[in-house]
Specification:
elongated
Length: 138
């Protein structure tokens, strides 16, 4: 792949990530407002920050691997997903250690898992479609 195409795909990925995260955040904020469930605001903020940070890192990692050795992209998808899962587990454990209230831990896990699954589905669909398009052009 040429550098221009990689940068174009990277910008497209970042744009779509921001839209997915913003959409999920707005839906969650609407649900919090309707149900008057203010205890979900902190878990939502942590989940949004994690989703943004992990998506930006994933995008930069993909650009780097696609630019240097595109033949190893399948390994990148596996390793990056595993690292993202381990980091999510570490964030959840740290929150559980910091917050000793059972209800706040459960609220956090629900919101965080929902964001994690949404981003996991988005990444899978985005890169599966991308790889299919790139393989059809070859």
């Amino acid at each position: 792949m040429d550098r221009k195409l990689i940068e174009q795909i990277g910008r497209k990925y970042n744009k779509f990530c921001l839209w997915v995260i913003a959409g999920a955040t707005l839906i969650a904020l609407l649900a919090i407002n309707i149900c008057n469930a203010n205890q979900f605001v902190t878990p939502l903020a942590i989940s949004v920050l994690y989703a943004l940070a992990s998506s930006i890192a994933y995008g930069f990692g993909w650009r780097s691997v696609a630019g240097t050795s595109p033949a190893t992209l399948s390994k990148f998808y596996l390793v990056a997903s595993a690292l993202r899962m381990l980091l999510a587990l570490m964030v959840a454990v740290v929150f559980c250690v910091v917050s000793r209230d059972r209800e706040s831990i459960i609220n956090f896990i629900i919101v965080f898992a929902a964001f994690y699954v949404v981003m996991l589905i988005f990444d899978g669909v985005f890169f599966a479609r991308l790889e299919r398009k790139l393989n059809q052009k070859i």
